[in-house]
Design a protein that fits this description.
two-stranded antiparallel sheet, 136 residues
């Protein structure tokens, strides 16, 4: 099991707008615990990424898609049986969901962590999650 807690800082900017929606985004900073599933203990990571979000429509409930590439630093060079080759890795993400009002989001997200072949081995890690966020 993986547990992730993060904070997002919304960009106070619309990069592009049309009749179908708008492009905006946020900065994402997070801590993740990666359970190893054995006696070796888990791994920890800190990540930071810019995330671009396209919100469709203009109603109270808006579908959205998101994508971003950031940096992640792990507590070691492995997480469970995945060998990362380096504690320094990249975090890639894609996601989709619904924005409800101005403060809530629900959705699904896929994330990939690897060192982009800078160092071997580079097994990488994929993580899939349902998420809920609330802006305060």
């Amino acid at each position: 099991m993986t547990a992730r807690a993060g904070v997002g800082f919304a960009w106070d900017k619309t990069w592009w707008e049309s009749n179908t929606g708008r492009l905006t985004g946020y900065w994402d900073a997070a801590y993740t615990y990666w359970e190893a599933g054995d006696a070796s203990g888990g791994a920890h990571s800190l990540s930071f990424a810019p995330v671009f979000v396209y919100e469709f429509g203009s109603g109270n409930i808006k579908p959205f898609i998101e994508a971003g590439i950031g940096l992640a630093v792990f507590s070691g060079t492995s997480a469970g049986d995945q060998e990362l080759g380096s504690a320094f890795n990249f975090e890639d993400r894609i996601g989709a969901g619904l924005k409800i009002g101005e403060t809530q989001r629900i959705g699904i997200r896929a994330m990939h962590y690897s060192n982009a072949g800078i160092k071997q081995p580079n097994d990488g890690i994929e993580s899939y999650a349902l998420f809920y966020s609330h802006q305060i």
